[in-house]
Design brief:
With 296 residues, this protein is α+β, with helices and mostly antiparallel strands. The chain has eleven helices and twelve strands. The chain has one domain: Jelly Rolls. Helices cover 26% and strands 18% of the residues. It is globular.
């Protein structure tokens, strides 16, 4: 399940079977990783670069169930004053926060998330000549004393018992916080949900679950990839249960989501911005791949 980005045929075979592949040395130069890491920590101390974030500590004080709460309730977002205290303080209140406009503020990401190899992987996986980049996010996760939430439990992204073929997605994750001895916090069940042979009720109970909640016969499919600095991993988020454990230091990770233009996620793609200058400098395949983005 570990490949170089140009090993397309075995990579696709492994991805289709296991729902995940690790691409070693996705980013060739270490200084690029270090540069993005430095910029991210700078952004974390400036509220103008930060998106809304759920105030978990406030929710706990109000005795709100974290499993059912909607993060869209305005009174549960971190305030601007709280964000302006800097991430070392506001990270005690929330488990994660997203950076706004990642392709504008971190343009270094673009060559990796729309590379010829990534486009080729998407084309072969989705069996189409016109896959699309549908979403990009850069999220920072914090080490703190708050309880686990959201991505810290096993789940499928769409939460659907059956995912229609047109709604299938791939997600590329590139971590920027890892040191040379780190291996990441991600884990996945490497068996497609279609093969679990469980009913709808059982499937729903496994959303937001721990490894111990899975029947023992599935434990052999639990996989913790060894993701190294400069590497990334591509996974199928709708058909395979996955999670990321709470980090032991601030986790910095870029997510790029791919699929067909008919996907439900395409409605959100216009929120992702790219400069006209950078877009115009892309090759024709990459322009087609990113055509749903907003050019500024």
């Amino acid at each position: 399940m570990y490949f170089l980005k140009n090993q397309i045929t075995p990579l696709i075979s492994s991805l289709n079977k296991n729902g995940i592949v690790v691409i070693n040395s996705l980013i060739e130069k270490e200084y690029v990783v270090n540069k993005i890491k430095r910029k991210c920590f700078k952004f974390l101390n400036n509220s103008k670069y930060l998106d809304k974030s759920f105030n978990i500590k406030k929710a706990l004080k109000k005795k709100i169930d974290l499993n059912t709460v909607t993060i869209h309730k305005k009174n549960l977002f971190l305030t601007k004053n709280e964000l302006n205290t800097g991430y070392k303080k506001f990270s005690r209140l929330t488990n994660s926060i997203e950076l706004i406009d990642p392709l504008l503020n971190l343009p270094e990401l673009i060559e990796y998330i729309v590379s010829d190899e990534i486009i080729n992987i998407c084309s072969k996986h989705f069996k189409t000549n016109s896959p699309r980049l549908l979403y990009v996010a850069f999220r920072c996760y914090f080490k703190n004393n708050l309880p686990p939430s959201d991505v810290n439990y096993y789940h499928t992204d769409d939460r659907k018992f059956v995912t229609k073929s047109g709604e299938n997605l791939l997600k590329l994750a590139i971590p920027f916080h890892l040191d040379k001895k780190d291996s990441g916090e991600y884990s996945q069940l490497i068996i497609n949900k279609k093969k679990l042979k469980i009913n709808k009720r059982e499937f729903s109970k496994l959303q937001h679950s721990e490894a111990r909640d899975f029947p023992k016969k599935f434990h052999k499919f639990l996989f913790h990839p060894n993701v190294k600095k400069r590497s990334g991993y591509v996974f199928d988020p709708n058909n395979f249960f996955h999670k990321a454990s709470k980090p032991n230091k601030t986790r910095l990770i870029c997510y790029a989501v791919y699929g067909k233009k008919t996907s439900y996620l395409s409605k959100k793609t216009k929120k992702i911005k790219i400069t006209k200058k950078i877009f115009n400098n892309l090759n024709e395949n990459a322009k087609k791949f990113t055509c749903l983005l907003t050019k500024t």
